[in-house]
Amino acid sequence: MFGRGKRGERRARTGPVVPPRPDHDTFGTPPHPLHTPRAHTSAVRLDKVAKAYGRGAEAVHALRGVDLDIPRGTFTAVMGPSGSGKSTFLHCAAGLDKPDSGRVLLGDDDLTAMNENQLTRLRRTRLGFVFQAFNLLPSLTVEKNVLLPLRLAGQRPERGRAAEVLGMVGLHAHAGRRPAQLSGGQQQRVAIARALVTRPDVLFADEPTGALDTTTAAEVLALLRRAVDDTGATVVMVTHDPVAASYADRVVFLAEGNLAGHLHAPTPEAVAARMVGLSQPAHARGRAA
């Protein structure tokens, strides 16, 4: 049932993807020809986004003027060493936190200009979220968990829509079960179905496979890949796993709150090599460059 989808089929026909040469692996470089993104407008755009915690000499600068465009219908992975700003990036991009300066645009709408009530309505209708913890309500059935975002948004919960998204994740037959009756992988697939039920502009995933074994993680990642390839969804995933990142069209790297390059058509080996380099002290990275 699960596979690498269209992207995996392209790789199977053409052989392994050659990692981009280091001198070409910078922002603004055209993507690898096998994975040229479709000509879409931006789903999310960060414009000089900065965020710090604390004040003065003790302040921690999580993001330092980040500029990034995420096109519609693409799968972007965000990686970086511990403390690089990945979680803050996701929270700002998804409207869960406001930057100190700069703008975050969802399509043409400026999230940074919205009040909390406006952001809450927007998150309920136009954004989907999948986290490492499945966050399913144990007292509700699978179907009711999936329909919960529609209820919270004040929309009429359509059982047909629940059946549609549960069919997409291969769990239509489990609609009447409760989360405790499912495996971890099945619960995460329910969480993905719940995130997709409102047809969101962007699905944000924060370490979605962190609590899963290798085989189950591959099934969940293939599902996210298919959501992009088959339905045109936009997925932004924070991960620490080079294998998980290889399912994306592009990996964006962060280091000390700054953008530190990207890879198109990533392979696990190329991602791991870049992560090793980013994990070195800043002065060591400077000498290597």
TrEMBL record:
Tagged with keyword Nucleotide-binding: yes
Domain ABC transporter: 44-281
Region of interest called Disordered, as start-end residue ranges on this chain: 1-40
Alphabetized GO MF terms: ATP binding; ATP hydrolysis activity; transmembrane transporter activity
Annotated keywords: ATP-binding, Nucleotide-binding, Transport
Keyword presence, ATP-binding: yes
Biased segments, Basic residues type: 1-10
CC terms in the record's Gene Ontology section: membrane protein complex; plasma membrane
Pfam assignment, any one: ABC_tran
InterPro entries (alphabetical): AAA+_ATPase, ABC_transporter-like_ATP-bd, ABC_transporter-like_CS, ABC_transpr_LolD-like, MacB-like_ATP-bd, P-loop_NTPase
Protein name in UniProt: ABC transporter ATP-binding protein
Organism: Embleya hyalina
